[in-house]
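User: Need the bound-state model for guanosine-5'-triphosphate:
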Amino acid sequence: MSNSNKTKPEKPSNKTQNKSAWLTFFYVGTEEVSFSEDARRILIINLFTIVGVFFTLPLGIISLFTGKTTLGWCLVFIAVLYAINHVFLRFSRNHSLSGSFVIYPLYALMIYLVYTGGMNGTGHVWIFCVPAVSLFLHGMKQGLIELAVFTIALIIVMFFTDNYFSEFGYHETLPSRILFSFMVVIFLSGIYEYSMSRFNDELKEKTGKLKLLAYIDSLTELLNRRGMLQRLEIKEQEVIHLLLADVDFFKRVNDQYGHDAGDYALMKIAEIIQTSLPEYGFAARWGGEEFLVALSEGDIQEANALAELIRKRIESYKFSYEGQVFNVTLSVGVASTTPSVILREAITLADNRLYRAKHSGRNQVCTD
Ligand SMILES: Nc1nc2c(ncn2[C@@H]2O[C@H](COP(=O)(O)OP(=O)(O)OP(=O)(O)O)[C@@H](O)[C@H]2O)c(=O)[nH]1
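Assistant: Bound-state model below.
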């Protein structure tokens, strides 16, 4: 293809670039934008720190200007802490510690707000964000324990201290209403967190199974072609010896003993191949009745010897399926990658040698 025909890689649109910049900003501290539990926590930390800075800083400044000096400095301190935390997460990627920098100052600030009343006696309205953040960041078990401790602290502050409630002329039932509604929010956040983590666990398990299905052959439990290629590509820079084996006259096995007997034979052959491999060998079902073995160490003599061993073990094995006993044989082609023979070429070479083994009478190993 001439250079002029080559298509230039498409430049991402401004919209896509903006979206990706926002995502990177909110997922900072994680390797990739994904839906893993850790990535979700990091997203929550980043969102909370950013929202925290944008809300807390103006409120702190207003408090300072309206003479509420202690409250003002507390809020400014929290805003600065959250901003530093965002930078800390960006460089350390330690979301566990970063989560603690978010949640523990938050608990302290909330207790302080409930005790003092914050701005004009509205301090208590902020406590309802605590359960969701606590459960999100620390999970069900630790989150609930911390919320229980926080609720006890809340009860002590609201019912057993000389707090602001009396100052603002609130109805006497307000503290108990706050407490009950706070517990309802804990309950609802708990249900949400529980169902989210169950959903995540199931998703993880199903994704794991799907990945396995994508790379493993379900009949023989060996790698499938995709799984083998993936493993071979990882070892592309190394010398690899390849044994491509094909069952001889397998159509006859199916025709004579039935398709199920054929399946059984494939399973047994896979088992024999697998149990013949050295530690550094791996095998795949390459196609219908074709198997590919790869050796990432050893020399070509060892590869040839292994091919011969497998061939002999199959030849002498008595396949027995539902009272029917039969024999099968294998033809094998062996080839290796070298600095001048890349993987695809070595596979083609092994295939050509397998073809030669077939045409030289089958049940044999062809190495050149
Ligand atoms: N039972 C069973 N048979 C399969 C499976 N996959 C492929 N086959 C059969 O394998 C047979 C392969 O036949 P051919 O390609 O003609 O080769 P062959 O009979 O083995 O003959 P040669 O390779 O020339 O020695 C076909 O009959 C396929 O139906 C499978 O998963 N199970």
